[in-house]
Amino acid sequence: MATVLTLAGDGIGPEIMTQAINVLTAVNDKFDLGLTLKSGLIGGAAIDAKGSPLPDDTLAQAKAADAVLLGAVGGPKWDAIERSLRPERGLLKIRSELGLFANLRVAKLYPQLANASSLKAEVIKGLDLLIVRELTGGIYFGEPRGIRTLENGEQQGFNTMVYKTSEIERIGKVAFELAQTRAKASKNPAKVCSVDKANVLEVTELWKQTMIELQKDHYSDVELSHMYVDNAAMQLLRAPKQFDVMVTGNLFGDILSDEAAMLTGSIGMLPSASLDESGKGMYEPCHGSAPDIAGQDKANPLATILSVAMMLRYTFKQEDAALAIEQAVSDVLDDGLRTLDILDKNESGLTQVGCKQMGEAVLAKLAS
Ligand code: IPM
Ligand code: MG
Q1: Which residues line ligand 1 (CB under 6 A)?
Q2: Closest CA to 264 of 152, 120, 109, 137
Q3: CATH topology match: 3-127+264-367 vs 141-247
Q4: What is the helix (H) or strand (E) element at residue 90, kind and residue range?
Q5: Of 3.40.630.30, 3.40.718.10, 3.90.950.10, 3.40.50.720, which CATH number belongs to 3-127+264-367?
Q6: What pLDDT shows up at residue 116?
Q7: What was the pLDDT predicted at 137?
Q8: Which CATH architecture has domain 141-247?
Q9: Whole-model pTM?
C-alpha cells in the first residue's frame, strides 16, 4: 500500500497542512486511491522535540514513504542557533538525502486573480510558465564552504558553485521532456530557456554548453534559448509570457521562482514538486513559514492543496484526482472566496476568508 508522509513544519505549516490533509483524505476516499497517511517532524518543530531539524526517524519515514507532503520550515525562534542545526538545514538535507534533484515550480495565473498581480493584466493574462530548478547541487551544496579567519584577523565567508556534466544533463532532460509534454497539451511549440551567467561564471559556461549538446543530440524538436540571469529577472517582469519552461541551477532558480510566483499575484497560490530519478517526490508550497501570520488563521492553504494535486499527478499518476482538486480550487475562486493575500480590496463581490474556511470550501466543492 502506498504511503504519504506529511511534515507540517513551522509557522503557518501546521494550519495549511491540516487543510491539505483534509483534502487528500477526501480524494483518497472519493477516488479509492488506497493511500495511507503518516506524519513526522521537521524543521524548528523537530529541533524543539528532538534537537535536530531532520531527526533520523523522520528521514527513515521519508525514505520509506512513496511521497512526502511538506508545509514550511523556519522562523525567528531558531535564527540564532548554530548554522548546521537551523530548520532550513533540515529541508536541504531531506532534499539531498532523497535525491530530489528536480524542482518544478509552476507560475500559472488564475484568471480570477488577474487583479491581485502588481503587473498590468495584459502582461500576465494567460501566464503559465514552469521553472525547473536544480535542487541538490550548485552553490547550495558545493564544498568548500564556511566562514574562516584570514591571517590579518579579518573574517571571510566562502561558498563554491559547482556542477558536473551529469548533473546538468539530468536536469536538462527533465526540462526538455516537460517542455515536450506541455507542448502536446497546449499545442504550442516546445520551448526551453536555459538561464545562466556564462559571461562571468565558468560553472554556468559548462551548464550552457551541456544544454546545447543535449538539445542537439536528443531534443531537436524543442526550441532552446539561453539567457543571462540578470536579463531573465528583468524579462520576467517585462514580458513573462515569452517563457514556457525555464531551466536553471539551484541559486538562480530559488530567486527566479519567487519572482515568477509573484507575477501571479501571490506566492500563496503556487505549489511545487521535487522529484528524484524514479518520480518519487516531495511536494510543498513555494512560500515559506510566514511566522508573522502563524496561528492566526490568515494563511492561504491553496498552494499546499495544489501541491497535493501535483503529488497525485506526478508520483501516483492519478490525473483525475489531481484535476478534481484543481477544479475545486478554481471553483472556490469563482465563488469569490479570498484569503488576505489574494484579496483585491477594489473588487466587489469578494468574501475574505481564513485558512480553515478556505480549506473547508475546497472540501465542499470536492464533495459536490
Ligand atoms: C525555497 C526556500 C529554501 C531554498 C530555503 C527555505 C532553504 O527558499 O524552497 O525556495 O532556498 O531552497
Ligand atoms: Mg526560495
Answers
A1: 74, 88, 91-92, 254
A2: 109
A3: no
A4: helix 87-97
A5: 3.40.718.10
A6: 81
A7: 98
A8: 3-Layer(aba) Sandwich (3.40)
A9: 0.93
pLDDT at site 198: 97
Between CA 219 and CA 152 the distance in angstroms is: 53
Cα–ligand 1 centroid distance for 145 (angstroms): 18
**Which ligand 1 atom is the nearest neighbour of the CA of 254?**
10
Q: Which three cell numbers stand for residue 219?
A: 531534443
Which of 88, 101, 282, when mutated, tests ligand 1's pocket best, judged by the most ligand atoms within 8 Å of its CB? 88
pLDDT for the residue numbered 84:
85
Q: Which residue among 10, 191, 196, 197 is the active-site one? A: 197
Q: What is the pLDDT of residue 312?
A: 97
The single residue of 244, 254, 341, 365 carrying the catalytic annotation is 254
Query: Strands, E, within 229-339: which ranges?
Result: 245-248, 271-275, 281-285, 337-338
**For position 83, what pLDDT does the model report?**
85
Q: Is 314 a catalytic residue?
A: no
Strands (E), 281-350: 281-285, 337-338
Most informative mutation of 68, 96, 254 for ligand 1 (most atoms within 8 A of CB): 254
Q: For helices 250-263 and 229-238, give the axis angle rounded to 10 degrees.
A: 10
Give me the residues of the chain with pLDDT under 70, please. Answer: none
Specify the length of the chain in residues. 368
Per residue in 160-208, pLDDT (tens digit) is: 999 999 999 999 999 999 999 999 989 999 999 999 999 999 999 999 9
Which pLDDT tens digit goes with each residue over 304-360? 999 999 999 999 999 999 999 999 999 999 999 999 999 988 889 999 999 999 999
Domains of the chain by residue range? 3-127+264-367, 141-247
The residue contributing the CA closest to ligand 1 atom 9 is 286
Instruction: DSSP for 21-36, please give it.
Output: HHHHHHHHHHTT--PE
Other CB atoms within a 10 A radius of the CB of residue 64 amount to: 10
Cα 42 from chain centre:
17
Residue owning the nearest CA to atom 5 of ligand 1 = 88
Q: What is the Cα–Cα distance from 103 to 4, expressed in whole angstroms?
A: 19
Q: Are 72 and 14 in contact (CB under 8 A)?
A: no
Cα(230)–Cα(252) distance, integer angstroms: 9
